[in-house]
Amino acid sequence: MIKYGGAAMREESLRQAFAQDVVLLKYVGMNPVVIHGGGPEITRYMEKMGIEVRFHHGLRVSDRETVEVAKMVLLGKLNAELVGRIDRAGAGAVGLSGEDGGLFEVAPVANAEEVGFVGNIERVDVDVLNHIAGDYIPVIASVGSDRDGNSYNINADEAAGKVAAALGAYKTVFLTDIVGWLKDPEDETTR
Protein backbone atom coordinates (compact mmCIF):
# COMPACT_ATOMS: atom_id res chain seq x y z
CA MET A 1 0.00 0.00 0.00
CA ILE A 2 1.48 3.30 -1.10
CA LYS A 3 -0.03 6.69 -0.29
CA TYR A 4 1.30 9.03 -2.95
CA GLY A 5 1.41 12.74 -2.22
CA GLY A 6 3.52 15.75 -1.34
CA ALA A 7 6.52 16.82 -3.41
CA ALA A 8 6.56 13.42 -5.12
CA MET A 9 3.39 14.54 -6.95
CA ARG A 10 4.63 18.04 -7.80
CA GLU A 11 8.16 17.51 -9.10
CA GLU A 12 8.52 15.99 -12.57
CA SER A 13 11.61 13.91 -11.81
CA LEU A 14 9.98 12.48 -8.69
CA ARG A 15 6.75 11.66 -10.55
CA GLN A 16 8.69 9.66 -13.13
CA ALA A 17 10.85 7.93 -10.50
CA PHE A 18 7.72 7.01 -8.54
CA ALA A 19 6.10 5.35 -11.57
CA GLN A 20 9.27 3.38 -12.29
CA ASP A 21 9.58 2.25 -8.67
CA VAL A 22 5.96 1.07 -8.57
CA VAL A 23 6.49 -0.91 -11.77
CA LEU A 24 9.61 -2.48 -10.26
CA LEU A 25 7.58 -3.58 -7.23
CA LYS A 26 5.10 -5.27 -9.57
CA TYR A 27 7.91 -6.97 -11.54
CA VAL A 28 9.47 -8.45 -8.39
CA GLY A 29 6.19 -10.13 -7.47
CA MET A 30 4.52 -7.63 -5.17
CA ASN A 31 1.03 -6.30 -5.76
CA PRO A 32 1.32 -2.57 -5.05
CA VAL A 33 -1.83 -0.55 -4.53
CA VAL A 34 -1.51 3.23 -4.85
CA ILE A 35 -3.87 5.77 -3.32
CA HIS A 36 -3.43 9.47 -3.92
CA GLY A 37 -4.81 12.79 -2.91
CA GLY A 38 -4.18 16.09 -4.58
CA GLY A 39 -5.03 18.86 -2.14
CA PRO A 40 -2.73 21.56 -3.57
CA GLU A 41 -4.01 20.91 -7.10
CA ILE A 42 -7.65 20.99 -5.92
CA THR A 43 -6.95 24.32 -4.22
CA ARG A 44 -5.32 25.69 -7.38
CA TYR A 45 -8.34 24.78 -9.52
CA MET A 46 -10.83 26.09 -6.97
CA GLU A 47 -9.00 29.43 -6.92
CA LYS A 48 -8.97 29.54 -10.75
CA MET A 49 -12.73 28.96 -10.73
CA GLY A 50 -13.33 31.63 -8.09
CA ILE A 51 -14.50 29.14 -5.45
CA GLU A 52 -13.64 29.99 -1.85
CA VAL A 53 -11.12 27.58 -0.28
CA ARG A 54 -11.71 26.90 3.41
CA PHE A 55 -10.35 24.39 5.91
CA HIS A 56 -11.65 23.36 9.32
CA HIS A 57 -9.23 21.51 11.59
CA GLY A 58 -7.22 20.34 8.58
CA LEU A 59 -10.21 19.16 6.53
CA ARG A 60 -11.27 20.94 3.34
CA VAL A 61 -14.76 22.36 3.79
CA SER A 62 -16.56 20.63 0.91
CA ASP A 63 -19.93 21.63 -0.44
CA ARG A 64 -21.28 19.80 -3.50
CA GLU A 65 -19.44 22.18 -5.86
CA THR A 66 -16.13 21.60 -4.06
CA VAL A 67 -16.59 17.83 -4.26
CA GLU A 68 -17.24 18.12 -8.01
CA VAL A 69 -13.99 20.08 -8.43
CA ALA A 70 -12.15 17.51 -6.29
CA LYS A 71 -13.48 14.68 -8.47
CA MET A 72 -12.55 16.56 -11.63
CA VAL A 73 -8.99 17.13 -10.42
CA LEU A 74 -8.43 13.78 -8.71
CA LEU A 75 -10.00 11.55 -11.36
CA GLY A 76 -9.88 13.56 -14.55
CA LYS A 77 -6.37 14.90 -14.11
CA LEU A 78 -4.18 13.38 -11.40
CA ASN A 79 -5.39 9.77 -11.53
CA ALA A 80 -5.30 9.70 -15.31
CA GLU A 81 -1.78 11.16 -15.37
CA LEU A 82 -0.50 8.67 -12.79
CA VAL A 83 -2.07 5.69 -14.56
CA GLY A 84 -0.49 6.85 -17.83
CA ARG A 85 2.94 7.19 -16.22
CA ILE A 86 2.79 3.71 -14.74
CA ASP A 87 1.61 2.30 -18.07
CA ARG A 88 4.49 4.00 -19.92
CA ALA A 89 6.96 2.74 -17.28
CA GLY A 90 6.05 -0.82 -18.21
CA ALA A 91 3.17 -2.17 -16.11
CA GLY A 92 -0.56 -1.88 -16.58
CA ALA A 93 -2.42 0.33 -14.14
CA VAL A 94 -6.14 0.81 -13.57
CA GLY A 95 -7.51 4.11 -12.26
CA LEU A 96 -10.25 3.89 -9.67
CA SER A 97 -12.11 5.98 -7.16
CA GLY A 98 -13.91 4.81 -4.08
CA GLU A 99 -17.12 5.00 -6.13
CA ASP A 100 -15.98 2.39 -8.67
CA GLY A 101 -17.33 -1.09 -8.10
CA GLY A 102 -18.54 -0.05 -4.66
CA LEU A 103 -14.90 0.05 -3.53
CA PHE A 104 -15.60 2.36 -0.56
CA GLU A 105 -18.73 2.60 1.52
CA VAL A 106 -18.62 6.12 2.93
CA ALA A 107 -20.45 8.03 5.64
CA PRO A 108 -20.18 11.71 6.54
CA VAL A 109 -17.54 12.63 9.12
CA ALA A 110 -18.78 13.35 12.65
CA ASN A 111 -18.50 17.13 12.20
CA ALA A 112 -20.24 17.19 8.80
CA GLU A 113 -22.21 20.30 9.77
CA GLU A 114 -18.88 22.19 9.78
CA VAL A 115 -17.08 20.56 6.83
CA GLY A 116 -19.89 19.42 4.52
CA PHE A 117 -19.32 16.50 2.17
CA VAL A 118 -16.21 15.06 3.77
CA GLY A 119 -16.46 11.34 4.34
CA ASN A 120 -15.06 8.51 6.41
CA ILE A 121 -14.63 5.11 4.86
CA GLU A 122 -16.74 2.56 6.70
CA ARG A 123 -15.95 -0.40 4.45
CA VAL A 124 -13.48 -1.29 1.70
CA ASP A 125 -14.48 -3.98 -0.80
CA VAL A 126 -11.16 -5.82 -1.02
CA ASP A 127 -12.57 -8.20 -3.63
CA VAL A 128 -12.49 -5.33 -6.14
CA LEU A 129 -8.83 -4.63 -5.37
CA ASN A 130 -7.75 -8.26 -5.23
CA HIS A 131 -9.36 -8.91 -8.60
CA ILE A 132 -7.55 -5.99 -10.24
CA ALA A 133 -4.22 -6.33 -8.37
CA GLY A 134 -3.52 -9.76 -9.80
CA ASP A 135 -2.83 -8.30 -13.24
CA TYR A 136 -2.73 -4.52 -12.80
CA ILE A 137 -1.66 -1.84 -10.37
CA PRO A 138 -4.75 -0.23 -8.81
CA VAL A 139 -4.44 3.56 -8.55
CA ILE A 140 -7.17 4.97 -6.31
CA ALA A 141 -8.36 8.58 -6.04
CA SER A 142 -9.60 9.54 -2.58
CA VAL A 143 -13.28 10.17 -3.23
CA GLY A 144 -16.25 7.93 -2.51
CA SER A 145 -19.99 7.86 -2.06
CA ASP A 146 -22.61 6.79 0.43
CA ARG A 147 -25.49 4.38 -0.17
CA ASP A 148 -27.64 7.23 -1.46
CA GLY A 149 -25.09 8.21 -4.11
CA ASN A 150 -23.83 11.37 -2.42
CA SER A 151 -20.17 11.95 -3.27
CA TYR A 152 -17.62 12.78 -0.58
CA ASN A 153 -14.11 14.14 -0.45
CA ILE A 154 -11.96 11.74 1.62
CA ASN A 155 -8.66 12.49 3.30
CA ALA A 156 -6.12 10.46 1.29
CA ASP A 157 -4.03 9.57 4.36
CA GLU A 158 -7.10 8.13 6.07
CA ALA A 159 -8.12 6.30 2.89
CA ALA A 160 -4.66 4.75 2.60
CA GLY A 161 -4.85 3.51 6.18
CA LYS A 162 -8.33 2.03 5.69
CA VAL A 163 -7.35 0.30 2.45
CA ALA A 164 -4.13 -1.05 3.98
CA ALA A 165 -6.01 -2.41 7.00
CA ALA A 166 -8.73 -3.99 4.85
CA LEU A 167 -6.15 -5.64 2.59
CA GLY A 168 -3.98 -6.75 5.49
CA ALA A 169 -1.11 -5.01 3.72
CA TYR A 170 2.35 -6.22 4.67
CA LYS A 171 3.76 -2.69 4.36
CA THR A 172 2.25 0.76 4.02
CA VAL A 173 4.37 3.63 2.74
CA PHE A 174 3.34 7.29 2.96
CA LEU A 175 5.16 9.48 0.42
CA THR A 176 4.53 12.93 1.82
CA ASP A 177 6.20 16.12 2.93
CA ILE A 178 3.49 17.17 5.37
CA VAL A 179 5.13 18.42 8.56
CA GLY A 180 2.98 16.35 10.95
CA TRP A 181 4.08 13.15 9.20
CA LEU A 182 7.76 14.07 9.23
CA LYS A 183 8.14 14.47 12.98
CA ASP A 184 11.37 12.95 14.25
CA PRO A 185 11.03 12.24 17.99
CA GLU A 186 14.79 12.79 18.42
CA ASP A 187 14.83 16.17 16.67
CA GLU A 188 13.92 19.06 18.95
CA THR A 189 13.08 21.32 15.98
CA THR A 190 10.14 19.13 14.91
CA ARG A 191 8.30 19.11 18.24
Walk me through the structure.
The chain has 191 residues and is α/β, with parallel strands linked by helices. It is 42% helix and 21% strand. It is built from seven helices and eleven strands. It has helices at residues 7-10, 12-27, 39-48, 64-89, 112-115, 126-133, 156-167; strands at 2-4, 34-36, 55-56, 59-60, 93-97, 104-108, 119-124, 137-141, 143-145, 151-153, 173-175. It has a five-stranded parallel β-sheet, sandwiched between helices. A two-stranded antiparallel ribbon has the order 3-4. Strands 6-7 form a two-stranded antiparallel ribbon. A hairpin with a 5-residue loop joins β9 (143-145) and β10. α2 packs across α4 and α3 packs across α4. The mean pLDDT is 92.
Task: Give a quick account of the main beta sheet: strands, pairing sense, barrel closure.
Answer: 5 strands, parallel
Q: Give unreliable regions as ranges.
A: none
Distance between the termini: 28 Å
Give me the number of helical elements. Answer: 7
Mean model confidence by pLDDT: 92
Helix content: 40-55%
% residues in beta strands: 15-25%
How do the strands of the widest beta sheet line up side by side? 5-8-2-1-11
Shape, principal axes of CA atoms: globular
Radius of gyration: 16 Å
Number of extended strands: 11
Order of helices and strands: EHHEHEEHEEHEHEEEHE
Structural class: alpha/beta
Label this structure with key terms.
21% strand; alpha/beta
Helix-strand layout with pairing:
Blueprint: E1 2-4, H1 7-10, H2 12-27, E2 34-36, H3 39-48, E3 55-56, E4 59-60, H4 64-89, E5 93-97, E6 104-108, H5 112-115, E7 119-124, H6 126-133, E8 137-141, E9 143-145, E10 151-153, H7 156-167, E11 173-175
Parallel strand pairs: 1-2, 1-11, 2-8, 5-8
Antiparallel strand pairs: 3-4, 6-7, 9-10
